[in-house]
Structures are given as structure tokens and as C-alpha cells.
Amino acid sequence: MQPFTYELIKTCKQSGARLGVLHTPHGDIETPCYMPVGTQATVKAMTPRDLRDVGANIILSNTYHLYLRPGHELVREAGGLHAFMGWERPILTDSGGYQVFSLGDSNRILEDGVEFRSHHDGSRHFFTPEKVMEIEQALGADIAMCFDECAPYPSEREYARAAMERTHRWAARCKAAHTRTDQALFGIVQGGAYADLRVESAKTLADMDFIGYGIGGLSVGEPKEVMYDMLETIMPHMPADRPRYLMGVGSPDCLIEGAVRGVDMFDCVLQTRIARNGLALTKYGRRMLRNNEFAHDFAPIEEGCGCYACKNFTRAYIRHLVKAKEILAAQLITTHNLYFSLRLMEEIRQAIRDDRLLDLRREWQERGGME
Fold first, then answer.
1. For 67, what's the count of Cα atoms within 13 Å in the CB-facing half-sphere?
2. Among 142, 148, 264, 267, which one carries the catalytic annotation?
3. Which of 94, 142, 148, 264 is catalytic?
4. Is residue 209 flagged as an active site residue?
């Protein structure tokens, strides 16, 4: 058996959504799946034990950040990212492309790669596709992403095409440089908000025969309807026997809408980021727990939720922690938000089994949970 394979189990008759399994060296992952983000080899406010308790089977880490600190050679010396962070389940590392290109005026894009300054100390660095492959192979995640150019939104058509074509050339260089047989390499579809460019990118990368495919350059400021249109446009041109990963997307509405359109994998910092500001996700919409309305509210964050926070603490207590700026507030709300999102993925998978994903979407819309 290959170290990494994708098994398509079922297609929802009502929606066309896909139920599958990713087989990796560190375990199997049922899809569609949501991946909590552990940018710097840690999911903020969560221990690996906490992540296992909420049901996380795969997490994501960031190549750019780990390259700058503590350095990929140190991680290699520690035995790889799994050993370094004490996480025995699968890991995906992004290429750092989005972070590098989001630096704006501090980077310089060349055909060979990108020159950029560290946001820590201003030191200069240069990422090429070969360098990124060196870093990701040293980190040793189960899944590595190609180095790509993420065009901002909006972008002129000429710029979007140039970035897409450079992404294709870099994808070929990444594939040539990637030699680690126990690590899957995913290509990344680009093309901005231009349907014909997206189709061209999907077809070009499919011909390169990657193990899986990321969909990049979406959720970067465009209306959600544009993102959904791009997904509907490219899916007929994506290999049906390979996993499809919508990068940087993970709000409840996008998880459902993405799955309806054939996405298999999602990641997003939303769940952990908003938790640190006191905001909780629920099936009835978001709840800002620092608000006065919860000062005397002794119900859990969400009635019926089985997470540790909801089974043991009240909104009033958590509001007190938020107002007091106690670390436990972030821990408890993060626990809830991740548990909530992972349970939503279970609901989505069961709805696909039952051929009723569009019914599930309607139920969430009527309840107010599609935020």
C-alpha cells in the first residue's frame, strides 16, 4: 500500500458531495474534514491531548513561520514535526506562500523565487520552490504543499494569469525537488476570480498528476458567492480520485457550502482566533461571551454540546474569565469552537451517507447557524 492514498467511499445523490478516507502514514482521516491550524507547531490554547479529546485527526502547521523560528533543521534534529510537538496523528504543512506574498512591499517576486524580510527581525530571506521543498521535507508532515503565488483580490487579469503560470512552473519544480516517499505533495490551483483561468489551472495541475490538490487564492477578500462560483467552475476538471483541499476556509457556512460543491479538506484560523476575543460558534449563530447579557447566564456556551467547556462551565463564568483576561477563557472557548466545527463535519459526513446534505444545509440556514 502506498504511504498516502485517497479512497472515495460515496457520492451524495442529493448534492454530489463526496465522502472519503485519506490514508496517511500517521492514520486515516474521514473526509470531508476540518483541520485545526497549528501555525507554529501548536494549536493556540490547546495541548495535543486537548486536540485528541475534541476529535482532531489532522492539523496544519506553517512552513514560513517554522522556517523563521525555530528553524527547520532544529525540527529535523528533533525527529520531525510529529516528535517535536508531541502529535502522533497526521499533519499538513502549507508552503508559506500566502504568508510570503501577504508581506506586500517587503517582498520581491522573481522567476526563481521570492525575496522577503522576516517579520521578526527584518532579516532578508529567499524562498525558491526547491528551498520550500527542503524545508517541508525536513519538517516531515504527512502532506506538503507546493510553493505558489497567491494573487490578491482584486487582481487585474494579466496579473492573475502571470501568477497562475508562475505557480504552474513552480509546481513542476517542487515536484522535481520533492523526494520524500512517505510524504504526499499537493499542487495548488490558482487563477484569481477568472473562471477560464481557474479551469486552465485545474487542468494543467491535473496533468502533473499530484497526489492531491489545493485550491488557493480564495477567501482573500472576494464575496463568498464568487468563491462558490469558482468552486463550481473547477470541480468538473479536478481528478475525482484525488483529495481537494480548499485552503484557509472554515466558517460553518463555508464548510457546508464547500462540501456541497465537492471539497474534501478545509482549514481555518477562525475557530481559534475568535475564541481569544471571546466569540463562540454555535448552531444558532455566534455568541460574544464578553457581552453583558451573559453576566448572569448560567447555561453552557451551547445547550446540548458535549465539549469539556459546555459540560463543566457556564456562560457567566466564561464571561468573567474573558473580562478578567484569564488564559482559561481562551482555552475553554477554543475547545468549544474546535469541538463544534469537528462535530459539524461529522454531521456533514453523515448527511452525505444519508443522501441529504442539501436538507442539512437548509436546517442550518433556518436555525441561523450559517454565519
1. 26
2. 267
3. 94
4. no
Q: How many residues can be counted in the chain?
A: 371
7, 8, 17: which is closest to 355 by C-alpha?
17
Task: Report d(CA 187, CA 262) in Å as an integer.
Answer: 17
Output the DSSP codes for 305-362. --SHHHHH--HHHHHHHHHTT-HHHHHHHHHHHHHHHHHHHHHHHHHHHTT-HHHHHH
53 labelled catalytic: no
pLDDT band at 104 (very low <50, low <70, confident <90, very high): low
| Neighbouring residues of 278: CB distance < 8 A, sequence distance ≥ 6 | 288, 289, 290, 319, 322, 329, 333
CA-closest candidate to residue 256, choices 349, 334, 368 = 349
On the 0-12 / 13-18 / 19+ scale of CB atoms within 10 A, 132 is buried
Per-residue pLDDT tens over the stretch 125-153: 999 999 999 999 999 999 999 999 999 99
- The dihedral formed by the CA atoms of 213, 219, 225 and 227, expressed in degrees to the nearest 10: -20
